[in-house]
Amino acid sequence: MNFNPQISNLPIYEAGKPIELVIREFGINPKDIIKLASNENPLGCSPLALEAMEKSIKSANLYPDDSYYELKESLANLYMVNSKNIVIGSGSDQVIEFIMHAKLDPNKAILSAGVTFAMYGIYAQHIGAKIYKTTSPNHDLNELKALYNQHKNEIKVIFLCLPNNPLGECLDASEVYEFISGVDSDTLVVIDGAYMEFAKFKDNKKAINPKDIVLLSNAIYLGTFSKAYGLGGMRVGYGIANELIINGVSKLRAPFNITTPSLAAAIAAIKDQNFIDQTLQNNLKEMSIYEKFAQDNHIEFIPSYTNFITFVFDNNKNSTKICDNLLRKGIILRNLQSYGLNAIRITIGTKEQNIKVLEALKKEI
């Protein structure tokens, strides 16, 4: 069987190890497993979202409202934009896929930070497009500008992951808007705001407002219900941009691309600001405990504006060995060796989870 040549060397994206795998491989009681590898919300999701999902199951035989009218209106009110400025995806990564197919071909290219969300490069390879990355792992704007100017005729999509996954760093909004102003009108700048709720709660200088993005001719903001809203299993994301961009990427959306329970959950989740506040407060408080642990144990860490923290080890420690040893104890963390980093990414959990993780980690370092 022959396949398109551009996928011959394409890696299969490896998500964080599921709890079920740890149960099968190591025979650990599910109650004793702590999964802090996929940046899921440790508090679960809004009770309103759970209730809405349960009610929606009764209509499982019916397709959802494909206009997504109520969800778009809720997002429009939240961000003070028009519903015509919104496209809905099965996770924000599906909107990324729409963008790639709308803007790229084998003669064009994407640009991103050196270490960032792996799916940007994978989706580009689906199409056979080129990939330009900075030598710096984080968002070095000077290097991004230089690469863009050098390859301006090829680069048609620029990704700014703000805050950045898997590192956690984040640019100030003013820097972002200045950068976008130097990009031509036919190159689309994608602001991936999957973790933006955490960033703007910690430091308002990081806040990218979608209502500002819709005023631009060459930018789109991506958001998701998988992180702060705790609906990773429901797969709901969105893009917000001017109407011309939204109309273009919407042509690639298949009908009914999110489920009836997913739609109900997302609509209800927006209404529960108390749950979001609890999530953000828990994250900021518990993040400080990880930072102190790193300082006390002389571990380098990247100051994070997300719901995770990245510990970077020197040559005396090996992130693969650390993650494997902890996995056998039922603690699932994300090893970043696949990104070329001797580092681990740890989702910020509940107080009880974090105490157990740090006690186990202390024995490994």
Could you characterize the architecture of this molecule?
This protein has 365 residues and is α/β, with parallel strands linked by helices. Helices cover 40% and strands 15% of the residues. It has helices at residues 19-26, 47-56, 69-79, 92-103, 119-127, 141-150, 173-181, 196-202, 210-213, 243-250, 260-270, 273-296, 319-327, 351-364, and strands at residues 34-35, 86-89, 109-112, 130-133, 155-161, 188-192, 219-224, 237-241, 300-302, 308-312, 331-332, 334-335, 343-347. The strands form 3 sheets. Strands 2-8-7-6-5-3-4 form a 7-stranded mixed beta sheet, sandwiched between helices. A 4-stranded antiparallel beta sheet has the order 9-10-13-12. A hairpin with a 7-residue loop joins strand 12 (334-335) and strand 13 (343-347). Helix 2 (47-56) runs antiparallel to helix 11, helix 3 (69-79) runs parallel beside helix 11 and helix 4 (92-103) runs parallel beside helix 5. It is globular and about 55 Å long. It starts with 18 loop residues before the first helix and ends with a helix. The relative contact order is 0.17. The mean pLDDT is 94.
Number of DSSP-assigned strands: 13
Low-confidence stretches: none
Topology as H/E string? HEHHEHEHEHEHEHHEEHHHEEHEEEH
Sheet with most strands:
7 strands, mixed
Shape: globular
Strand order across the biggest sheet?
Answer: 2-8-7-6-5-3-4
Radius of gyration of CA atoms, rounded to a whole number: 20 Å
Mean pLDDT: 94
Ends apart, CA distance between termini: 47 Å
Q: Give the strand content.
A: 5-15%
Structural class: alpha/beta
Amount of helix: 40-55%
Number of helices: 14
